[in-house]
Amino acid sequence: MKKIVILAFATVIVTSCNSKNSKDENSTVLTDTIVNNEKEDTVESISVYEGILPCADCEGIKTILKIDVVANKFQLSTTYQGKQPEKSFTEKGNINTEKGLEKDPDGTIFILNWDKPEKDQTYYGYYSKNPEKLYLLDRNKKVIKSKLDYFLELNE
């Protein structure tokens, strides 16, 4: 009888230990999944556009624009190429969006530094049919008409 009680007690202990580990493993898997999904959402909310914009007195302005549409933030990095030494600038700030670019009601305009005076704002936009090409816009939020390329391309 004593042996049966000890055997039953041992079985309960082993079973409860296995059951606890199983719960911990499930909890870990669930937590990892939530964290991974949050990271994926963060990565997808940031778009990076790159290109060489025209420059009057240099070979071109290498431009990288990172847009975080969830946080409404941007980072604009520019490097003036062909000058010695090459000058690089990085600007960070707030961004706002407007719907409609010229005759495309579904196009998007990004207003960099929207919370600053208009003279400090910069405008970029894309047409809904081609969101991979981001155009530098003039002060009237229109695409700059030129033989030169005033656009950046989405870097995937």
UniProtKB/TrEMBL annotation:
Gene3D superfamilies: 2.40.128.640. Pfam families: LPAM_1, NlpE. Keywords: Lipoprotein, Signal. InterPro entries: Cu-R_lipoprotein_NlpE (IPR007298), Membr_lipoprot_lipid_attach_CS (IPR012640). PROSITE patterns: PROKAR_LIPOPROTEIN. The keyword Cell inner membrane does not apply. This is Type IV secretion system putative lipoprotein virB7. It comes from Flavobacterium anhuiense.
